[in-house]
Amino acid sequence: DEGSEVAFAGRSNAGKSSAINCLTGNKKLARISKTxxxxxxxxxxxxxxxxxxxxxPGYGYAKVPDKVKxxxxxxxxxxxxxxxxxxxxxxxxxxxxxxxxxxHKMLSWAAAVGMPTHILLTKSDKLKRGxxxxxxxxxxxxxxxxxxxxxxxLFSSEKNIGYPExxxxxxxxxxxxxxx
Length: 180
Known about the structure:
Layout: E1 4-10, H1 16-24, E2 43-48, E3 51-55, H2 66-82, E4 86-94, H3 101-113, E5 117-122, H4 129-143, E6 150-154, H5 163-174
Parallel strand pairs: 1-3, 1-4, 4-5, 5-6
Antiparallel strand pairs: 2-3
């Protein structure tokens, strides 16, 4: 639990693994599946000495028993509450579906503990430009209640939409703070 890490959270099949692969330029780094619930552990990906991305199990629909879902929930909750090296949270939300109750629960937690959070409205290439912009404006309005540590953008791992913005955010979070 040293260095800096950014965690990727979101509903099952929101595109967490695809986003990690896109952002690292390694299409085989995080395992991708069309079946929700394939990420079943905390997967740590080292970018360089002391800098990591963490792929969390998804929440919501997954083809697994309820006991397994509860175990994932406890695992993720423990990680989020106690990890000292966690510097930021990337919350992935399919832009075709508005923020869901559990997304709001994650945002409430992040706001309460002061955890910087950046929402990626994934799969934005699946919408026409006007519909994608409308989804972004709607999400921007919804997150105002959580304060200034929460931001949102459109993203597509297929078309690299929003790539520079999220890379800048992650690099900023992973840059060690000068304590002098």
